[in-house]
Amino acid sequence: MKIVYCCPQLFHPGGMERIISMKANYLADVYGYEVFIITEKQFGNKPFYELSDKIKHIDLGLDYDGLTGSSLLKSVINRIVLKRRQKRFLKNILEDIKADIVISTFFSEASILPSIHDGSRKILEIHFCRGVKMMYAKAFRFSFVKKCLYYIQQSIDEHIIVPKYDRFITLTEEDKQRWRTIIPNVAAIPNILTFNNTGLVGLEAKQIIAVGRLDAQKGFDRLINIWAKVCCHFDWNLKIVGAGCDHDKLQDLIKAKNVEAYTTLIPPTQFIYEEFCSSSIFVMTSRYEGLPMVMLEAMSCSLPCIAYDFKCGPRDIITNGYNGFICKEDDEQDFANKLSLLITNQELRLKMGLNARASVQKYKAEIIMPKWKKLFEEIIEK
Fold it and tell me: CB within 8 A of 74, min separation 6: which ones?
């Protein structure tokens, strides 16, 4: 079977990049499929996560990011030119590959693939949640005009683009139910565990960990505000692992809140497993997600989790009070109280941590990937 993934790039250390790499590796190495990854803007950069030698990687060399900063009219014209070029490139490549399945990750290729009649079945998988463009525009505080454009694009995505695909895949049951009101051919297949810790963690380290891109989506500004309510009472450290456009802003906020002595910012690392194993609590204050990879990873390392009730992910992963806590959106005091409770109660940390590790075993690759195999076979048979 020939499978093609289309995605923006693979050189960033993000959850989507990791999961696409892992799924592609599994399909190629375990199932023996012929797997292709077509990126939009790799530009010769090495993939951050290792790819199997069996995978064929093709880059289109399209710089959509270069449109940022241009006037609205110039940006629209250049985007149209790039879209036409992208469609021409994809059409030629896909007609040459003659794939059985082509998978869009819901980026620029999503509006193009259904119009390419190369004989393949088309699957659209979303790595965020329904309404992501509206959430993005709100989180990044776009201008009124730009917000309106994003809202219009969101409506086009939901009512025009998504229905054109043979199957639409969400990451969570919560999000599937939200889409089902308008899309009948929707299914939920979650991310797979990137690693599985088999050792016991004592959760004695006085360290709390958060991981993610340093931008408005991940909500680390909210986390720092919460931490300022807690840290002065305990001899603990908050470690934030990530890089991004808000790095300096977050450093300024850490200084303004007088939590420099209790807070550490470090860049992304390929040794995140070791960082989890040297921590005792995982926290997440994102404004929106799909199914947070880092949450699954942290829980597989026996870390109890505390998260806001953002869309989507926490409700599928966390059973409140059993393997972690879900706090009402923007309720800083409740979040601070739950964090203080776990800091002061090692027995509760251990109990929740063991429950956390047990509860994420259902996300193992050997459980999740057969769902993809079955989906591919069902679609091809139709």
Answer: none
The domain of 168 spans 2-191+365-381
Residue-wise pLDDT for 241-279, tens only, equals 999 999 999 999 999 999 999 999 999 988 899 999 999
Residue 202 lies inside a defined structural domain of this protein: no
The span from the CA of 195 to the CA of 202, in Å, is 19
**Amino acid at the residue 258:** N
The pLDDT-based confidence of 202 (bands split at 50, 70, 90) is: confident
Q: How far are the Cα atoms of 86, 104, 187, 210 from residue 301, in angstroms, in the given order? A: 41, 31, 28, 14
Do 130 and 30 lie in one domain? The reply is yes
Could you give the CA distance from residue 177 to residue 252 in angstroms, rounded to a whole number?
A: 40
**In 3D, which of 312, 307, 308, 311 has the Cα closest to residue 356?**
307
Extract the runs of DSSP E, i.e. beta strands, from 80-226. Answer: 101-104, 121-125, 167-170, 186-188, 207-211
pLDDT digits (tens, 9 = 90+) for 51-106: 999 999 999 999 887 766 667 778 788 889 999 999 999 999 999 999 999 999 99
Strand order in the sheet with 56-59: 56-59, 34-39, 2-7, 101-104, 121-125, 167-170, 186-188
- 221 and 108 belong to one structural domain: no
Which residues fall within 8 angstroms of residue 232, CB to CB, at 6 or more apart? Answer: 262
**Which residue in 218, 209, 203 sits closest to 266, CA to CA?**
209
- Say if 73 falls within a structural domain: yes
Phi, psi of 50 (to 5 degrees): -65, 135
**pTM of the predicted structure, to 2 decimals:** 0.89
Distance CA 132, CA 130 (A): 6
SS3 186: strand
Q: For the chain, what is the domain count?
A: 2
